[in-house]
TrEMBL record:
The modification N6-(pyridoxal phosphate)lysine is found at residue 215. Catalyzes the formation of L-homocysteine from O-succinyl-L-homoserine (OSHS) and hydrogen sulfide. Keywords: Amino-acid biosynthesis, Methionine biosynthesis, Pyridoxal phosphate, Transferase. One of its GO terms (molecular function) is pyridoxal phosphate binding. PANTHER family: CYSTATHIONINE GAMMA-LYASE, TRANS-SULFURATION ENZYME FAMILY MEMBER. This is O-succinylhomoserine sulfhydrylase. GO terms for biological process: 'de novo' L-methionine biosynthetic process; homocysteine biosynthetic process; transsulfuration.
Length: 408
């Protein structure tokens, strides 16, 4: 607000503008960049104010486990991007998933989840929730009949990720939301792989969206973070109390890093996506590659759903080499620019071999059900020049011939 007194209404402004200005709270110093409030607590002018704040009769901060001004700025900016009424930040993506589920569930409830979940999400659904009396059923997320059949009277939550890790399957969020709602359940979507730029699950009918801000939102490999978004009712009445009392709170420093990252999120995601599309097309034509999976390509198995619910194919590409694990290892070991790492969404292109890393914990049978075979690699495409990435990939693929790992 300048001297004119005109105040922007962020709900009517476009996403890029929301991401630069939304949620900003300036201190009395009028700083340009948002301030980091590295403080645990807050002082009150008098005892009456302290009493009123604790009673909730007066707005204002009390303790940074409950809320902190820098964290609030991040939450508000992200909620404006998502089009959600409210958001809460958490220490990591897994803190967001665990909080979102635990805050909404109680013993006797039932959860239906797509089987292709991030490893730690699978642990929460399969191992942790049952310990507290919450049963779960895993389904093939692409098969709507399985979602329908798994619903029970006590089903409270349907949970999915789309695109999935690592095979980048895309599920019909609107159809699954309908199935959940017809059965009195809510749909929670882990939207990490699409990022808030490319997919808006709440507009498709989801009740709650969770993020690992560690991925595209930071996008520069610096800090962990997470977020839970939904209606004010869900966030304030169910999620907030759980967070406040159990403490998986985001640090104000991390909130500041992530808040500044939101300013450039659309630029980064769109450029990474354009690089990913070029890399996917290059790989699809290479004879060492058995299969390329990229949601932005017309040969993706759910290309029609991608068209309906995403603004593009995303920043990840899955590729399967003909020569199995030996070829996958030899290929990745010969890359020079693309780094071997299990993170994703980063400015640096990163490649991982799911069968021996993220999905190592699973039995070979469980990996087979998920299509995580030994020749599969997951490539998170970064902000390098796409031509350099393609040359790096071409060199490593061509070197497979010299190592006697040519395509059969
Ligand atoms: C990384 C990731 C998480 C967990 O996030 P952390 O920030 O590592 O705790 C959850 N879901 C998906 C899909 C992820 O990729």
């Amino acid at each position: 607000m300048n001297d004119s007194g005109r105040k922007p209404d962020f709900k009517t402004l476009r996403p890029a503008t929301r991401l630069v200005h939304g949620g900003t709270q300036r201190s009395q110093f009028g700083e340009t960049s948002e301030a980091i409030f590295l403080t645990q607590g807050f002082v009150y002018p008098d005892m009456e104010t302290a009493e009123a704040r604790f009673k909730g009769d007066e707005p204002g901060y009390v303790y940074s486990r409950y809320a902190n001004p820098t964290v609030t700025m991040f939450e508000e900016r992200l909620a404006l991007l998502e089009g959600a009424e409210a958001a809460r930040a958490t220490a990591s993506g897994m803190a967001a998933v665990t909080t979102a589920l635990m805050a909404q569930l109680k013993a006797g409830d039932h959860v239906v989840a797509a089987r292709a979940l991030f490893g730690a999400c699978l642990y929460v659904v399969e191992d942790l929730l049952p310990r507290f009396g919450v049963a779960s059923t895993l389904v093939d997320g692409a098969d709507l009949a399985q979602w329908r059949a798994a619903m029970r009277p006590e089903t409270r939550i349907a949970f999915l990720e789309s695109p999935t890790n690592p095979r980048l399957d895309v599920y019909d969020i609107a159809a699954i939301a309908d199935i959940a709602h017809q059965n009195g359940a809510r749909l929670v979507v882990d939207n990490v792989f699409a990022s808030p730029i490319l997919q808006k699950p709440m507009a498709l009918g989801a009740d709650c969206v969770v993020y690992s801000a560690t991925k595209h939102i930071d996008g520069q490999g610096r800090c962990l973070g997470g977020a839970i978004l939904g209606s004010s009712d869900l966030i304030e009445n169910e999620v907030h109390g759980f967070l406040r009392q159990t403490g998986p709170t985001m640090s104000p420093f991390n909130a500041w890093v992530l808040l500044k990252s939101l300013e450039t999120l659309p630029l980064r995601v769109n450029q990474q996506m354009s690089n990913a599309a070029r890399v996917a097309d290059f790989l699809a034509d290479h004879r060492q590659i058995r299969q390329v999976i990229y949601p932005g390509r017309p040969d993706h198995p759910q290309a029609d759903i991608v068209q309906r619910q995403m603004l593009g194919g995303g920043t990840l590409v899955a590729l399967e080499l003909s020569g199995g694990k030996a070829a996958a290892f030899a290929f990745a070991n010969r890359l020079a620019i693309i780094k071997i790492s299990n993170n994703l969404g980063d400015a640096k292109s990163l490649i991982t071999h799911p069968a021996t890393t993220t999905h190592q914990r699973l039995t070979p049978e469980a990996r087979a059900v998920l299509g995580v075979n030994d020749g599969l690699l997951r490539l998170s495409v970064g902000l390098e020049d796409a031509d350099d990435l393609i040359e790096d990939l071409a060199f490593a693929l061509d070197s497979l011939d010299q190592q006697g790992l040519a395509a059969e």
